[in-house]
Amino acid sequence: MKFLHKYIRKFWLPFIFALFILMVEATIDLLLPTLMASMIDVGVATRNLDEVIKMGSTMVLLTSVGMVAAVLRNFLSSYVSQSFGTELRLDLFRKIQSFAFQTIDKFDRASLMVRLTNDVTQIQMFANGLMRIFVRAPLLCIGALIMAVRLNLHLSIVLAVVVPLIAILLILNMKLGFPRFINVQKAMDRVNGVMREYLSGVRVVKAFNQFQFEVNRFQHANGNLVEAAISSNRVLSVFGPMMVTVMNIGIVAVLWFGGYGVEQGHIKVGEIIAFTNYMIQILFSLRMISMVFTMYVRAKASAERINEVFVEDSLFESASIPSLNGENVFHVDEESRDEKRGPKGSIEFENVSFTYDEKRGEPVLKNITFSLRPGETVGILGSTGSGKTSLANLIPRFYDVSEGSVKVDGKDVRDYNLKELRNKIAIVPQKTMLFTGTIAENIRWGKENATFEEIKQAAMLAEADSFISASPEGYETKLGQGGVNLSGGQKQRISIARALVKQPDILILDDSTSAVDMATEAKIKASLKKYARDLTCVIISQRISSVIDADFILVLDNGKLVGIGSHEELLKNCQVYQDIYRSQTGKEVLL
Ligand code: M5T
Ligand code: MG
């Protein structure tokens, strides 16, 4: 997986160093039982205190070296795995930011979340595990075998039986365990998914009294998880004790043969103790190895999922996304701002057709052609689902056209640097998005370095100042996630203020006053008119009253442009417009 190369290049040195320390630790682990054997057999058995002290202090010394090494290695491994995880997460985040909307639509949003959090953690844990046990376990296993054989060839016959048996059990354990582990992972994902969906729609669930339905859904997902977990734990709970039992029988055999040998006088007590110690080390390291394998399987699945994100094409270079150490932090390019003063902001649609999903036949927009001069205001009217939002999405290039071209200031949007293009345009989306933070911070999103005066000015234009100033904390009022503590109309007005503070050339209002009453809407439009003499405006609405005084109106019906002209012209010669007019005013069109 190519994305890992970068991190390998970056962290190989501390990684290798950690592996080196691991080798030192393993060597110490291997020496200790032998030292102990000699302490017992030479020192204790012959009551030679000097030998006991000599061996004892060597052991203490070695253990202390081992301790220092372990501390150092732990520092290293947590440093490497944490920095690796942090960087990977940031890189992944940047990559996702660089995606075109098409790509984001393709991934399920929840699955992107899991990739950013859980999947990164899995790989991080594996990296950490590698640096703690990777070399140590095989080294310890082979080393302990060699030391044991060297210690006593006769007793090693027991090992020749026990070790292959345990190895077989381990392999069986992995064979049966891995698929079950993967099932647990999948079931966990589903529980998360159900929970996330429930929480985001909790109001609707309550309003429709769908508790039982949701509980059943959750129970189902949860039940699957339990089954998967039990099944995987069963494997663990059978094989774990089995391995320990085999090893214990082996130890009993060693003690039995050994005891016999001691009686005969050709084996020493210390040897037996050291030997059993090595056996335990072998068992321990084999189980470690199986653990690393489990981690490996999980990390591999996660790495594959992350890789899927990295191999997607980026729509634009993400250089403008703030990096960890603060370089590249967003700033508004003052120069380009000044240079774009003057009447700019023309929009041209030439024979534009568009579909969200190439495979799903029927395009959402068909052969749309119109042009808008700088400073003009266009209204876009059409029933719900007629393609208004889709049309607006093409201007800041949220999506690419399927056919034809969209030009801003005479240049195809595909030829722009995206940052430059989007600097010209402010959009008030149909679905208001506010973020956790104060009202002032939310408005400042439009322009990083906006002064308080600019913010207040924008809020005044959007008719938001009155209600903001009326609240006790004013502009410092904290908003919950998504602005939960505001009404729909208040949210819309803050969202408009955020767009205005950007001082764009083109302003797109997508049904942005739908939740505001008629009187307030009229006020917003009046102040916009005053303020925005050379601002190009695209006003999307379902209400004729919102677009009636635009320079001209586009009428969309099922993705087709069925009328273009002023209110009066359309009343005369556009059937769809007449129908909408009749339904909204109750008046017949008098010709
Ligand atoms: C037009 C489809 C939608 C509809 C058609 C935004 C969006 C729309 N669609 C998608 O497949 N994916 C999307 O992300 O496009 O939809 P619209 O442009 O949103 O219509 P509208 O803005 O005129 O409607 P409304 O209700 O906002 O007034 O078929 O399935
Ligand atoms: Mg819409």
From TrEMBL:
- Name where it's found: Cell membrane
- Known PROSITE patterns for this protein? ABC_TM1F, ABC_TRANSPORTER_1, ABC_TRANSPORTER_2
Please list the residue ranges annotated as the ABC transporter domain. Answer: 347-583
Residue ranges of the TM segments: 12-32, 52-72, 133-151, 157-178, 235-258, 278-297
Q: Which keywords, in A-to-Z order, does the entry hold? A: ATP-binding, Cell membrane, Membrane, Nucleotide-binding, Transmembrane, Transmembrane helix, Transport
User: Pfam families, per this entry?
Assistant: ABC_membrane, ABC_tran
Where does the ABC transmembrane type-1 domain lie? 16-298
MF terms from GO for this chain are: ABC-type oligopeptide transporter activity; ATP binding; ATP hydrolysis activity
Mode of membrane association: Multi-pass membrane protein
Q: Which GO terms describe its cellular component?
A: plasma membrane
Q: What is this protein called?
A: ABC transporter ATP-binding protein
